[in-house]
Amino acid sequence: MNQTECISIKNADLGYIKNNSHLTVLKNINASFFMGEMVGIVGINGIGKSTLLKSISGLILPLTGEIFINQRPRKQMSLLELSQQISVVLTEKIEGFNLTAYDIVASGQMPYSNSFNQLFNNHKAYINEAIKACNLSDHINKLSSELSDGLFQKTIIAKALAQQTPIMLLDEPSAFLDYASKHDIFILLKKLSEEKNKCILISSHDLDLLLKYCNRLLIISENGCELISTKIAKENKSFQIISGGHIQQYY
Amino acid sequence: MLFFLASCFLSLWYGGSEDLNNQITFTNNFIFWQIRVPKSITAILAGSSLALSGLILQIIFRNPLAGPYVLGISSGASLMVAASILAGSSFSFMTNYFYGKGFIVLSAITGSFIVTILILFISKKISSNVILLLIGLMISQICGAIQTSLEYFSDSNSLKTFVVWGMGSLANTNLSDLTIYLPFYFIFMLSILFFIKPLNAMLLGENYATNLGINFYKNRFYLILISSALTGLTTAFCGPIAFIGIAIPIVSRLIFKTSKQQVHLFSCILIGSSTLLISDAISNSIFNSISLPINMITTFIGAPLVIYLMFKTKHW
């Protein structure tokens, strides 16, 4: 692949710091991701999919090693710079305080607004673009607690889109969704990664969807992680190996 | 929205003038300027401080039922004030007016800050909003118990000062108190303006706020400091005043259907101060000869309101 590298993880141990002791979840991770590709992250529960995504997005720091975002070490970037490079979609619910779907999408422009969080026409243009891309126009004035799981997930994706970042990280966006909504969301993400040349990382348990829509798979196991191209895997019959060998190991 | 802001202004002036009119008819100028005006100004300051403090706490805890009084933060401030009044008689600098008042204000702010940090640590261990309130209740009980035992060992003079103060009253603040109260008030009020964006981001929770470029822990620390300072300041001058802090932000969210916290900041200032002004007017006008403690009125207004809203609203 001769595309621009946007995330590279070098010799990183990832995990949490609790009571001054390191809780290493993922050991010695080396991986690179490129612009315009969609990578699926698979692995059993608790293996560290969320830890990986949180480490890349800067919500937690790598214990050792370094993560480079667009060839720049993450440590040197401020939170604001990082927020203009990476947007996240997490499993958390956002509720209450009169928050509507529009408010959540609009918060994506927060890294670009002034300290009073005023939205001007240029901000609103990005927000409306994100709403349109996610087909949310009919539900935009609903309170977030009134949204169905699928619509809520789309709202958060629209927020990430409104953040105008080259990198999007999604933590189990397809959990709790029905089959049609899952496909909706994956088709939407595929479109984004192709049209806007974004790098999209998705952790999910829906292997069929990942194989169908992603360019590559990052398989995390106790032995470390491994990147496999879905296309090549399917063509070379090594798909058999994935489904027979690796995957069975994980499920 | 402008209409609502205008009506808040109206109620503010109505509350103020009602209060003043009562008195102009049968008192002289001296009482008007030396007692009525300071009292009304105190009501405005206290009402808006407590309402804002409650608003900040509700956002920090992401819990619409948080407030300085129900979480025991006011009690923490009272305890520290009690300790400083009762112990203070042995310090020589307490005889100086400004040092004495300043010492009490500082200890009240310290007290509320300690309780807020304590509650924050506890809130990480538990997930339920309601249990947090119960813990707040327990903390205020503990503070109350320590306070009572302090009173037991104190001399009659400082005991009286404290008991009168502990009932919560707007009337104890005179003009020279206001010269201390006002500057502090404006410092803390203006400093909130720097945190409008973090407040909006915090509604989305820690992770999303961080992802939007907001340093969550740093901003939360400053906001806790401001919120405790506002509660502590008010408690130092007026004693613990109940239910303004929890009820006003809820009312504000019901009136203004927006999640923009800059709107709620201003509406809390307006609604909070007008509510306390009206409560003060009511407390003075029910009986001719005596004025009821302000806490009684605010509890009568606030507590049923909170209960009603808890039943009525499913989504906060």
What's the helix-strand series of chain B? Answer: HHHHHHHHHHHHH
The backbone outline of chain B, from C-alpha atoms, is globular
CATH 4th-level superfamily of chain B: ABC transporter involved in vitamin B12 uptake, BtuC
State the name of the first-level CATH class of chain B.
Mainly Alpha
Largest sheet data of chain A = 6 strands, mixed
Overall pLDDT of chain B, averaged? 79
- The total number of structural domains of chain B is 1
**Cα Rg of chain A:** 18 Å
Mean pLDDT over the full residue set of chain A = 82
Give the name of the CATH architecture of chain B. Orthogonal Bundle
Distance between the termini of chain B: 20 Å
* Number of distinct beta strands of chain B: 0
Low-confidence stretches of chain B: 14-27
What name is given to the CATH topology of the largest domain in chain A? Rossmann fold
The secondary-structure element order of chain A is EEEHEEHEHHHEHEHEEHH
Write down how many β-strands of chain A occur, each being a DSSP E stretch of 2 or more residues. 10
Beginning-to-end CA distance, first to last residue of chain A: 30 Å
Approximate helicity band of chain A: 25-40%
The total number of structural domains of chain A is 2
Key terms for this structure?
heterodimer, A: 251 residues, alpha/beta, Rossmann fold, 6-stranded mixed sheet, 4-stranded antiparallel sheet, 9 helices, 36% helix, 27% strand, B: 316 residues, mainly alpha, ABC transporter involved in vitamin B12 uptake, BtuC, 78% helix, 0% strand, globular
